[in-house]
Amino acid sequence: MKSLKSGKIVKDNQDSNEEHIEIALKENHLKITKARVAVFKILASSRKPLSHSDIMEMLDSDKNWDRVTIYRTLSEFEEKKIVKSLLSKERTTYFEIMDSMSEHAHITCDVCGKMECLLDEMFDFSIKKAGEYQIKSVEILVKGICGSCK
Asked: pLDDT tens digit string along 2-11?
């Protein structure tokens, strides 16, 4: 994983390295805190979008993490375009690191709400203009029923 001045993060297949995380935080003018490093590490190592609850469950249980601090951290990351958020039909917000693979579709289960990335599917994200609209982003959400809920 390496950080980019644009605020985007490029993941590689190695575990999240704290030095790279600290560089990414500094480049985005964020103070290095335990919460920011921990949340960044969790998101960078995930292969699917995570909700606030998912992140809380994955945080080290030996530490007493404040839920509001984690919400604020995610909000700051979104403002700095380190992460992007996705809203499920259940109104749960999921977060994922913005990286070189940011333009990909997601699939969500209509029964349990689980959300995953569709990295191998090809969709056209190159739409630049639609009528009088200037396109800022394109999100594709595929809905279905997961294997666990069938």
From this structure: 344 444 444 4
